[in-house]
Specification:
The protein has 363 residues and is mainly alpha-helical. Helix content is 51%, strand content 4%. It has one domain. It catalyses: [protein]-peptidylproline (omega=180) = [protein]-peptidylproline (omega=0).
Amino acid sequence: MAPDKPSPRILTQEDLDVFQESETYHALVQFVVDLREAATGRPNSVGCVESEAMKSILSLLDEIQNLTVLHPAVPNEKSRFGNPAFREYYDDLESQLPDLFRKYFPDLQEDNLIDLQTYLVESFGNRTRIDYGSGHELNFICFLLCLSRIKILQQSDFPAIVLRVFNKYVSLMRVIQSQYWLEPAGSHGVWGLDDYHFLPFLFGAAQLSTHKYLRPRSIHDADVLEMYSKDYMYLAAIVFINSVKTASLRWSSPMLDDISGVKTWEKVSEGMIKMYKAEVLGKVPIMQHFLFGKILPIGELPSEKETSEEKKLTQHEGHVHADGVWGDCCGIKVPSAIAASQLSHTGELRSIPGGSMRPIPFD
């Protein structure tokens, strides 16, 4: 009998409260904190140990990126929503992952293999909604945490996890977001840090926290961005946003504009951890999709003790909502700003992996 796949279990705020007291939650938070510390003061270009496990993960990500070439975006004229070719890409990725894991991690136990495959495929977005958000990014962290918990990754790998593996994952996601016009997973958009990601800002602020000259306000300096964005994740994220939205950060990303007024990167870095716990790990609409399995377990949750009549829950496209309450994560579909930036005046598709984008006024 095949092991059960990791599955979502959090349905209510009470469930989330119990999770936040669990060993899995504390291990997850500590892992993010440890990775932040490993990135502190280190630019992407700094030398770091790349173990065989690190090399295997990087090769695995290369193969996942190669699949995007096999599944080009299909003509989707005048649409600014997700490109349906993403579903073919996702299905191919899911079908190939077992062989890829056996290739790069041949000694994995079967039950661990199931957990790792599930977290990794869920790291690349939602097949049905063709969207992506901080919850999917969290799945990639869970994938790495699982590798750490089963001793494939060691503490000595942590700098390379951030500077090599996570950085490569974000670069890959920008290819996927650009090629398939993934929609933001949620309707906050402009009010968040970014349409898609959180952790490049958290790790990126840590990278910059010891820099002698650069300050948070430096994100408004085009010369600084050009000179340093390849070395610092935070600045690379700003460059990507600017490539898609022509309005200033004050209008396109007001939270980032506000943060740029903080005096030091160290304070930004400290605030990012608090914000991550509150705005990602502390939100039911995001955490209702968090997957629990053998490596990241949870005990019985309050909602699982109630009868179906007491819950009064409804299902919608795999999401669970309290009766009569619409979740932030799946209300109004949010068009891709990347799609808008790539549509030509004639409405022709210009979604090319790694290609240039034509910025349009943010709307």
